[in-house]
Structure formats: structure tokens, C-alpha cells
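## Example record

The block below lists the input lines for one assembly entry, exactly as stored, with component labels intact.
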Amino acid sequence: MSGVTARAGDAPAISVSGIVKTFGDFRAVDEVSFTVPRGTVFGLLGANGAGKSTLIRMLCGILQPTSGSATVAGLPVATRSDEIKQRIGYMSQLFSLYRDLTVRENIRLFGGIYGLFGSAERERARWALSVARLEDRERTRAGDLSGGYRQRLALACALLHEPAVLFLDEPTSGVDPLARRSFWDLIDSLAAGGTTVLVTTHYLDEAEYCNELAMMHAGRIIATGSPRAIKEEVPEHTVPTMEEVFIALTERAEGVRS
Ligand SMILES: Nc1ncnc2c1ncn2[C@@H]1O[C@H](COP(=O)(O)OP(=O)(O)O)[C@@H](O)[C@H]1O
Ligand SMILES: [Mg+2]
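Predicted C-alpha cells for the full assembly:
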């Protein structure tokens, strides 16, 4: 019936095997291995300096691994990085938008990078604006948006070419708790549509929103598993955090949101 082969569908979206990145004699990423099935929200947790961004840059084909290997969307990162870039979206930690351009203009610019023009660009832009819930902000200058809106615009730009795998490097950093929650709702709906999402954070409460987690420390993975499995290792973490209580009470005060 369909032209899609079962074999392609079964391959993990991301597969990492003993990957290493050294800077001089410093090992920023030290023998990391994991796999991420398609349609999964995979959280990479770790403090500043743990090696998260370095790992993501290797998986996006921006940084060559020192040793080890990885495949992303079925392609090896060491040799097929140009093709990988067509299949992934990357929202870097310091995502850059043009502050003097409007939301719509920023999207058009990104579309051009991916070869989207004319009616194809308009169609993709409409879709990305609706996924990121930015339709009512099209004419707003990026510099005038709140942190939460700016972050959703960066996501819309990363989604324009319908990537199979999305890398989000601390996307919620510096954004208020309510905007963070609504951003995680977006991530959830993307994953439900089959997109694989690898997201880094140092907000430990956000771990709850991931299907699978890897905790990273000093270049190494120190724990992997579902949030529940990882929490069971540390029983006192079943107590809700003040932030979770804050979100619940704020949302109740605002009435039920979608
Ligand atoms: N280009 C580089 N040259 C030298 N050291 C680097 C470079 N990039 C990152 N590092 C170092 O590697 C470690 C991991 O950095 P990074 O991957 O940015 O961690 P994280 O994203 O988890 O905060 C840090 O100690 C950082 O200083
Ligand atoms: Mg980082």
C-alpha cells in the first residue's frame, strides 16, 4: 500500500556508540552510547559543562567526533553530515533571530536557507506558525516578543523543513514557568506526530515530560531510563517541586488551557 518500507520505520532515530570529543587533552564527551526510538522525547539532563551541547553538535554534523560513531535519521554523522542537516532541526542554545525583522520575515529567511520559496514557503510557514501558535504575532518584530514567544519562533524556524529529528539545546532556558510548560506541550504534540525530539535541560522538573532520559555528568552518561525508573533510584524526588505547585496553581487561576 505505502511506499515506506518497514525497515526504515524500525531503525532508531538516533544511535550513538562510544562517541568521544576531546579538546586538547580534555574529554568533553567521554564514550557516550544510547539509542532513541522514533517519535520519542529524549531528555539529556546535566549541569553546565556536562558536555550536552558538544554531544548535540556532533549529532547535528557540525562537530566531527574524535572517536566512536553515531547515526541520525539513518545516516552516519561522520560521513553524511550534509544530508543529515536536511533531516534535522537544530535550535541552538543561543538561538539567533533577527530582532529587527518580524516573525514572518524571520521565518521567510530560514525558509530560504532550506530552499523554500513561493507557495511552498507560504504553506510551510503557515504550518510552522500554527504549530508554534504564533499566527497572531506574524507582524511583530522578533525583538519585541517576550522570551516565551521568541523561543517558539526559534522552534518554528527549526521546523520549517519538516525534520524527522529535532535537537533542542536548552530551549527553555531563561523562560518563565508557564511559557516553559506550554513549550513542552508543543514538544509533546510534535512527538505524537512522529518527530523524534532530543532536548537538553538543566531544569530537573522538566525531566518528567520526557519519555526517556539520560543524565550526563563530566562527559559521561550516569543514568538512563524512563523518568519513573530514574526517580525510583532517588525516592525523595517523588515530592513535587515548588515550581510544579506554582504551575498548577497559576493554571487553575487562569482557567483550563488547551
Ligand atoms: N570548542 C571548545 N574548546 C575547548 N573546550 C570546549 C569547547 N567546547 C566546549 N568545551 C568544554 O567542554 C565542556 C562541555 O561543554 P558543553 O558541551 O558546552 O557543556 P554543556 O552544554 O553541558 O554545558 C566544558 O568544560 C566546555 O568548557
Ligand atoms: Mg550547553
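DSSP finds nine helices and ten strands in the chain. The radius of gyration is 19 Å.
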